[in-house]
Structures are given as C-alpha cells and as structure tokens.
Write a structure and sequence with these properties.
The chain is mainly α and 218 residues long. It is built from 13 helices and two strands, in the order ααααααααββααααα. The longest helix has 22 residues.
Amino acid sequence: MKRWGVWAEEIFADIFSVVAMGPWAVWAVAEAEWSAPDRMAQRKAKYPAPVVRLALMARAADALGVDGKSALRGLPLKAIAAHNPHAEADMARVDDMVQFALGPMRGNLGALGKLCDFSAAAFGDGGEVQRWAGALYAQGATPALDRLHTARHLVSGALRMWAQIVEMEDAPARDAARLALAAKVRETLPKATRRGPGRRTCPAASFQSAVRRWASCF
C-alpha cells in the first residue's frame, strides 16, 4: 500500500480526468502510453505501470456508466501485465482502488462523480459530447458556451472527432480534416473557458491541500 500512496496524487488526476471527460480521457491516455508490452508493464516513480494506469481509468469509466473498455481500443491489458509480476500484482488491486476513488470522500464532500456533476448521458449518442464533435467539424450547431462543463465536453468532443479522423484512409483528406479540427478548437476553446454561472476554480493551494488529504487515505 505504501507504493500506492506515492502514486496517489497522479491516480487522483487520472480518475478526475475520467470524471471530467468520460471515456475520452481513457482514449487519450491510451494514445500517449501505447508502446511495447514490456515498457507498458513497468512501474514508474510517480505512476503505476501504464497498463495498470489504463486499467484504473477504464474501470472508473465503466463504474461511472460509460464504456471504458472500448476506449482502450483493443489493448489486451491482462496479457500486457503478464510481462511483469509487479504489474500483475498491481492489477489485482485495481477494483479496490477504483471503488475507493469513486466512493464517499472525507469532509462530507460526497462522491467525486456527484461533486463534479458527472452525467453519463453527455457521452452517449446524441449527448453534448457528440454535439460538440459535430460542431467542431462544421456538422451542427455549437452548444452553449457558458456552462461550467462546457470546456471539458468541448475537449471530449474534439477527441471523439479526432478518433474518427485518424481512421480516414485518404491521407490528404485526413490531414485537411486534422488541420480544420485543430483550427476550430483553437478558435472555440478560449470562449468556452470564460467564467459562466457558478464557481469554476478555487485557489491552487486549497486544491492541492484537498488532493493531498485524499491521497493520504491510500
């Protein structure tokens, strides 16, 4: 458990990213961590092995009611973890860690998903993330820009559209679509991060202190 405590702040960041961006947080980290099995099964100083990190995020997405497994894009996590006995041992604790991470927090704050107003419907067919994906690719109207969750759903929508673009077989069309998407995101994201109704941020020191208290429970 001591090692999990060392990793706790980064685990919190990963779990929080899933609460903020649903399966697209898993998709993005899979993109970043995809490498040779031996490397993916190797523990890091501040993170568990990438294969364990992805298992934590995918299980968290599943627990929140969105499809974390599909976001892994076919990565065989158990087979990858088998390349390293430490990774296999850590994988055995994933379910317990996810249950803790998404469970009631200290200080009567409730569960993280509820605190962040997570909605699985936003990530489903016809949900706000899909609408953002279309809007960023000139395929629909732009959703409201002044909501507290707008920025996270916009970025999730961009990733959803990117996942479609990378599957294009025509290279020139793929490059043109990539550049168009990037330009639209650069244009729209600053508008989505302006303060709307409610509170978007807290002092950095207060947030860091809260994360450390959460991490001390590991």
